[in-house]
Design brief:
Elements: H1 2-19, E1 21-23, H2 25-35, H3 37-58, E2 63-73, E3 78-80, E4 83-102, H4 106-172, H5 178-213, E5 221-223, H6 244-265, E6 270-290, E7 296-315, H7 323-389, H8 395-429
Helix pairs in contact: 2-4, 3-4, 4-5, 4-6, 4-8, 6-7, 7-8
Length: about 425
């Protein structure tokens, strides 16, 4: 019965492994980008910015319009002297072309602002993309770390199982006390509790990754990467020039400077031209004309028009109670604020990236220290285990050595994981992710 149970468990584990999603770090990044709503919104903003550029460019070209209408008026309005105007079914139609000639620089400035808008939308997209990738990578490495701790705890439990079997045999032969057997059992129970906690943590990490990559939260996920082998860090500090946030601050200054020109253009002369072809008809005038015999003869005259019309308009602002001056001055203050914001945030980003770089380098040094501590703890555990088996060390010494080995192993896993997270934070802080 026991053998059948073991076979059933193995079959279940094998089945889960076959159905699980094997996920590499690169696949995790790509799936996160495909699933995230913010990246789709950023893509739409790029499309909108391109459309805004096209809208701004269209202001350079003439606009064609067709207009028309008809109306019916009754009774006929009197024009005096027995004269009436018949306006029943009067129609009007026309085609016009309007071309701005000079708008105070508003059209040129609008096109420059639209081009800046394109660049801003691209920078915003890059910033969002990096944030999504950073979140995906950090979640991935956290999941890998918890799985590594589970493997470590299972390895520790295997060691304790051997010690328990050895201690139990020694107790049955009268070479040790029942208290030692219970101490080993107590440590095993403690490890089982720790294992359960780690498994719960792993499940939470797995669900977080499922949310990020857009799969069902109960989907089994097996990461293909591990933290056992890490290359040496690149000790070059890249600076923050590649950060999209820096570019956004610079674009903001450019846009505010153009806003000054836009405010000024509202109070400069404008010149426009309009030409067109107009027609109206079905308007009739009725009256009477005197004859030689003194009588009056009624007559009707139709009024129709077909022809071209051309006009040039000039508008010169003269006096607006200082409105233009105040708007321009306000826009200049916006430029100053944008420059101050650029200086402030650039300093903060420099500080952030420097700290991230230091954490990145220091994190690798911690791995070296943790690895050395683990090797020492492992050597110490092997020596004490051998001495315990020949009665030269106590069970307390052995359990303490195993506890030290577990702590050192756990510290190494955390150091490696934190190094990967520090690497992600550093690359994000310099815009290289």
């Amino acid at each position: 019965m026991k053998i059948k149970s073991i076979i059933s468990i193995l079959c279940l584990v094998t089945s889960m492994s076959l159905n699980a999603l094997e996920l590499s770090l690169q696949e995790c990044r790509e799936m996160a980008l495909q699933n995230d709503e913010d990246i789709r919104i950023a893509q739409n903003h790029i499309i909108q910015a391109n459309l805004d550029k096209g809208i701004a460019r269209s202001a350079f070209f003439p606009k064609f319009d067709i207009n028309g209408g008809a109306f019916y008026l009754t009774p006929n309005p009197s024009m005096g002297a027995a004269m009436e105007m018949q306006m029943r079914g009067v129609y009007m139609a026309g085609i016009s072309l309007t071309q701005p000639i000079y708008t105070g620089g508003k059209i040129i400035t609008g096109n420059k602002l639209a081009r800046i808008g394109q660049k801003v939308s691209q920078d915003q997209y890059e910033a969002i993309r990096m944030d999504i990738v950073a979140e995906a990578e950090k979640s991935y490495w956290m999941y890998v770390a918890v799985l590594s701790k589970i493997d470590m705890i299972n390895s520790y439990i295997t060691q304790l199982d051997s010690i328990f079997d050895y201690t139990l045999s020694a107790y049955e032969l009268g070479f040790t006390t029942e208290l030692n057997v219970k101490r080993v059992e107590s440590r095993r129970s403690e490890l089982q509790y720790n294992l359960k906690q780690a498994e719960t943590g792993a499940d939470l990490c797995r669900m977080a990754i499922c949310r990020i990559i857009g799969v069902e939260e109960n989907e089994p996920v097996i990461p293909t990467e591990n933290i056992e082998t890490l290359g040496e860090p690149n000790d070059k500090y890249w600076g923050i020039e590649n950060r999209p946030e820096v570019s956004l601050l610079e674009r903001n200054i450019e846009a505010k400077k153009l806003d000054v020109k836009m405010a000024l253009s509202d109070f400069l002369p404008t010149v426009g031209m309009q030409i067109g072809w107009n027609a109206f008809g079905n308007m009739k005038m009725t009256s009477y004309t005197p004859l030689e015999d003194g009588s009056f003869y009624p007559f009707t005259q139709s009024i129709d028009y077909r022809g071209f019309v051309g006009a040039v308009s000039v508008s010169i602002p003269v006096f607006h109670w200082g409105e233009g001056y105040k708007k321009v001055k306000k826009a200049k203050f916006e430029v100053e604020n944008a420059i101050l914001s650029h200086e402030k945030n650039r300093k903060l980003m420099e500080l952030q990236s420097r700290q991230a770089y230091n954490n990145y380098i220091t994190g690798y040094e911690l791995i070296t220290t943790a690895n050395k501590a683990l090797n020492e703890a492992k050597s110490n555990l092997n020596a004490i285990t051998e001495q315990y088996q020949v009665g030269l060390m106590t069970l307390t010494d052995l359990l303490e050595a195993q506890s030290q080995w577990q702590s050192s192993y756990s510290n190494l896993i955390e150091a490696k994981t934190q190094f990967k997270i520090n690497e992600v934070n550093y690359l994000r802080s310099v815009g290289m992710l």
